Amino acid sequence: MRTANKLDLLALVAITRLADDAYGVTIHEEIERVSGRQVSMAGVYAAIDRLEREGAIRASYSEPRAERGGRARRLYTLSATGREMVRRERELAARMWQGLSEQNAGRRR
Predict the structure, then answer these.
(1) For 44-92, how does the pLDDT look when each residue is reduced to its tens digit (9 = 90+)?
(2) What is the C-alpha separation between 41 and 11, in angstroms, rounded?
(3) Which of 49, 72, 73, 104 lies at 20 to 30 Å from 94 by C-alpha?
(4) CA 11: distance to chain centroid?
(5) How many CB atoms lie within 10 A of CB 88?
(6) What backbone torsions phi and psi does residue 54 show, to the nearest 5 degrees?
(7) Is 56 in a helix, a strand, or coil?
(8) Per CATH, which fold does 6-97 belong to?
(9) Is the pTM of this model over 0.70?
């Protein structure tokens, strides 16, 4: 299992946060809202594609939206592999930050 790149990890966390409402547009919006950074839709869809190929996420289709011409949305959920990736990345980040005070967080040694 590889270490997730930053956008892949942001997509995994966004999917986790969004639960049953995780599709391309909401994933993109959640990443931008929480990170405060602009990301391209193409980048988000590339991350989703990588994660799906690796088996970290699974796709399913919603019922068509209740409006004329309403289409089904492609929804994403984490697989066991994806949950493990998120857990491992969270533990790594916690270990890296452990023992680091705010005073020396930006200082080089």
Answers:
(1) 999 999 999 999 999 999 777 767 767 888 999 999 999 999 999 999 9
(2) 11
(3) 49
(4) 2
(5) 13
(6) -80, -10
(7) coil
(8) Arc Repressor Mutant, subunit A (1.10.10)
(9) yes
Residue boundaries of the structural domains of the chain: 6-97
The tokens describing 106, both together, are 């930006």
Tokens matching residue 77:
């959920």
Q: Which of 33, 3, 6 is nearest to 18 (CA)?
A: 33
**H-only helix segments in 1-109:** 6-18, 24-35, 41-54, 80-97
pLDDT at residue 109 tops 60: no
Angle at 33 between CA 75 and CA 55, to 5 degrees: 35
Phi/psi at 72 (nearest 5 deg)? Answer: -75, 150
Query: Is 102's pLDDT higher than 60?
Result: yes
Interatomic CA distance for residues 85 and 12, integer angstroms: 8
Contacts of 104 (CB under 8 A, 6+ apart): none
Amino acid (1-letter code) at residue 64: P
